[in-house]
Amino acid sequence: MTRLNRRDFLSLAAAFGATASLAARAAPSLISWRERRDLFPEGVASGDPDSDSILLWTRRPFTDGRSSARLTVELAEDREFRRVLATSTCTVSSQSDWTTRVLVGKLKPASEYWYRFTDDEGNGSRIGRTLTAPAVDDPRPARFAFVSCQNINIGEQHAFRRMIHEDEQASPDQRLGFVLHLGDFIYEIVWYPEDRPQGMYGRRIRDTVRYPDGEKIADFHIPTSVGDYRLAYATYLRDADIQDARARWPFVTMWDNHEFSWLGWQGMQKFKGENRPAQTRKVAANQAWFEYHPARVTQPSGRIDQFQPPAVVDAAIARFDAQGLGQEPNNLAAINSLTGYRALRWGRHVDLIITDQHSYRSEDPTDLTEAKAFESPDFPEMVSEEIQRQLDAGSAWDGGKPPALLRFGTVEVANFRAAEPPQTVLGASQKAWFLDRLKRSPATWKVWGNTAGTLDMRADPQNLPDGVGRKWPAGYAGWGGGDPSTAYVERAEIYDFVAAEKISGFATIAGDRHSFWAGLAAKALPPAHFEPVGIAFITGSISAPGMVEAQEARFPKDHPLRPLYIADRADHTEPTVNLTLRHGVRTALDYAAHGDLDQALAQSNPENAPHLSFVDMGGYGYSVVTAGQDAFAVEFVCIPRPREKIDGPDGGPLRYRVRHAARLWRPGESPALDQRVIEGDIGLSA
User: By three-state DSSP, how is residue 600 classified?
Assistant: First the structure.
C-alpha cells in the first residue's frame, strides 16, 4: 500500500479519534515500567490493523480528583521492550471515561508487535500483543476467527480461552491474524438476580452490571445514559477471558443490536410492541462504543481522543424517506454520530467488508402489530414464508401490484404494507458503498462481515402427516424477520448484483443467531429458481443462550409439534429442530419417534433447504476462516453449553470441530461446499 506522509498520517489519526505515533529505529525502552493491572482494570487492546499501522487502546481511571492525566505508550518488536519502535504520550480524561486510542504507523506488514501503557508514576498496564496486516500482494492464506454474542450476565466466556490455547499451540503459519467480533459485545439487557431468582433456561443469573440510571422493563433493566453504557463495557472487559483475548490479537469489531437496544432500529427503541424515540440513548450507546473499541470508525467532529456527542432530544419521527430512513433531525444526528461500516484488506486474498445492520434499517415489517395476526400457538415460531415475502416487498410486490388483502388460511388482513417501500437493512447510502466496494475489490475473496445471518431459516409444515396437530394452510414457513434472510428484496438486489458483475469469491460470515450454519448464498429457494452466487456461514454464540436451550425450557411438552424442536429421551433431549430446518418436518418427526437417523433421513425433503449444508441450533463457540488462492474454509469449533466457568488453560472440552470448504468458482459457476468432521460428534446437524 502507499505509505502516508506525516501530515496525512496525523490527519488520519484525527479522523479516527486517536493520538498519532510513527515508528522509528528500534532502541531499548527508557521508561520505568512496573505492571499494575489493578490500575488498568480493563486491560489493553488493539484494533483494525492494516499493513503499516495499528490502533492501540487502554483505560486508566484516576480517582484522586484530577480530570485528566498523561500516559506513555510504547510499541516494540519484542516482549521485553529492548527494541522499542514507537514511544508517544497520550491523554486520558474523565470526558472520555479515562480511555485513550493511539494510532501507530510506519510499521512492517505481517509483523508481530508488543505494546504497553505507563502513567507518570511508572505504573504500567499489562503487555499486549498485536499484528499488522499483510501487504496487499502477500500470497499467504489469511486466517482469522469470527465470533459474536457474549453475555456475562448468564454465561461464561471460556470459548476465548480455547481460542487462545489453540493459537498458542499452533505453528506460526497457522495462527490467527485477527478476531472479527460481529456484535453483541455487551448485552444491554441485564437481569438482576433478585428479579429472576429462578434463573434462565437452567442458567444462573450473575450479579454483574447494575445501572445507576437504568430503567426497569418487565424483569430486566436497560441503560439510559452514557454512564450506564460505559459501565457495561467496563464490566465485560474485566472478564479474564475477554480481556486476555483482546490482549493477544487485534480485534475488528462492529455493533449489532444489543450495543444499543434489543429491538432498536435507527434512533428508536421498541418494548412491549411499542416504538419510542431514543435518540439520546443511541448517541450514548455510540459514545461508549467509540470509547471502548479501538476501531477505525468515524464521527462528524473528527475530534482527537474524544467522542463529540451531538445535542439531540428524543423526538418522534413523522416522516420517512423512500428507503424508510426517518428524516427527523434528531434521528439523523443520532445515527450519523458514528459511522461504523468500513473495509479491511488482509493480503492478496481477503477484502473484509463490514456493514451496520441496525443504524439505517427500516422497521422490521414482521414485527409490526398488524403482522401478529399471522402467528398462531398451533404453530409456535412459524410464520408463512409467503406472508413474510409480501410484508418485506410492500408496494413492490408482484411488480408494483400488491394485494389489497393479505390472506393465509382463514386469516385475512388489510395489506398495511401496500403503500410502503420494501424493507431495507443496509439503507441506501451504506448499500451503495457496499456494492461499490464489492465491485471494485481485486481480492480473491470478497467477505461480507454481517452481524446478522443471511441464510434462509424455513420449514415445510405443509408436509405434516395427518393427525399431527392442526393442518398448516399452505406453503413453507419461516421464523419471522429481523435479519437479512427475510429482507428478500434487498438481498436479491445484492445477489443479482454479484451475478451481473460476475463477482467470484463472494462469502458471507455472520453472527447473531446463537447457532452454527453453513450453506450457499441464494436469493430464492424452491419452488422458485435456486441459483447460488456465494457461500455463507454463521457462527455460534460465545455464551448467549440459543433456541435449543429456550425450547427445552419453555416449549409445552404436550404440544403435538414439540418433536419438531426437541426429542425427549429418558435421560436427555436432542435438538430435532436441526432436522426440521435442514431436512423438513417428516425427518424430524420420524427421528423423534424412533431415534434412527438413517431411517429418518430417507424422508428428507430436498426442496426444503438445498442451500444448507449444516445447522446446529444448540452450538456455542467460535469459527475460524482460512482463505487462500484456491479455497475458502470455515472451521466451527463447538464447546458444551457455557453455563459455568471451566478452569484450565484449554478452556475445557470440545463438542466437535467441523470444517466446510469451497473451491474458488469461476463467474457463472455455482459454488459448492465440502464438509469434514475433524473431531467430535456433530449429532443432528448435517
Answer: helix
